[in-house]
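Why does this matter for the project? Reviewers at the last site visit asked to see concrete outputs rather than summary tables. In response, this paragraph embeds two records directly. Each consists of the residue sequence and, immediately after it, the corresponding structure tokens. Nothing has been edited or filtered.
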Amino acid sequence: MNHFQSSIGTIYRHRGTISVTAVLFAVICITSCDPQGNLTRPEPNIFRPETLSAPGIWVFGELHGNYESPTFFGAAVSSALSATNMNVLVGLELPVAMQATIDTYLRSSGDPESREALLQHSFWHRQMQDGKSSAAMFDLLEHFRQLGARYSGRLLVRAIDGVRADQQQPSTGSDRDAILARNATDDAANNSDGVSLFLVGNFHSRRQPLNGLDYIRPMASLLQVPFISVQIVPNGGTSWNCQAGCGDNSVMQFVPGLEALANYQNDGEYDYVVDLGPVTSAEPAIWASVALETVSD
């Protein structure tokens, strides 16, 4: 049993553990707080599975490099598929050059040869292992492969990071968030009658730039269509990323509670915030693969 399968149903935490069968998301609506972070209504806004049963665009922001964030997102995709007969589009912060490799894997049986072929892509072998090419992301693709087999023809997975073959390079040349936004917009437009869910880094999911950095526009702030932004917040633990040198880094812990969550990056104008609780580092997928091979030998 991989980490994805074993952890699902235990990470939705808000004043204790909430069963995934009872409620999908326990979240705090940022817009329900005054400027001091005090709640203006007594109860948090709660997403239930039926929330994802109508057409719409959802942008989830994560801290790269832990197991719990992709697991949470995978549960959202599962719920969207089970709650409706509509198509579900998933957009991931993976290089567009990887699309054919992803498609091939999703059509496979998930056998060892297919897993190895997926891991051969250069994306997993980058020198800067910043968390996007983690074992958790590999597990997420495997989860989508299984969902695709279960919900035949209703799940489409798209890589949105980079200029696609039928596109021109943006005039700015290096505006990566503009490229992410354009690809997300195009993909969602092709799924206008379905549910579109995107998982990107927590900067890209911001509705507004960081204070003092107005010239750097996050992906979500560039979307020209209605959407909902969800910030997935780890509360302590460790995550594999490059925030303090690429590796196993500690994650800030805050005191659990409504006020603390409502205050969390309130200036980001996320529509919702999710308290994951403590998270666990997900090492690079190629390292995890080597460890598994060693054990098998």
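We now turn to the second protein, recorded in exactly the same manner.
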Amino acid sequence: MPAQITLAQLRKAGACKSQVVLFKKRFGESVRVTEDLACQYGPEFDIEWASQHLLSPSAYEVYRAAMASVCTARVPYAVVMASARIPYAAVSAVAYFPYVAAMIPAHFPYNVASTVAYVPYVATMIPAYVPYAAFSAMAFARAYLADR
């Protein structure tokens, strides 16, 4: 019998409403779990929650072992994240001090400066996150499938 995840399983496990709605939008009442689908749609879902609530204890250990192997692969992700945070933090800090000193009059410039810095931060962060999220989803799918 193919391994599936159903809306009923998600609800029974206590999935949040936004994840249930997204699941229904993407897959309807159920989906047959495959590594390809996990890689494709995994970044949209909270895989860490799913691993804790949908996997058996033994499958969860398989998942955690796979995720531990990502630690070395996560280093480039962390470097990219840090490089994106540095300019964002610098611009935000410069704008934050006048805000603290003057509060209300500085509130608008702070928000503008932070928003301007946040766009390149997110643009840098997203490409680094997607492969990590896809691997996490694939590791979940492998553990889920191995448990069935």
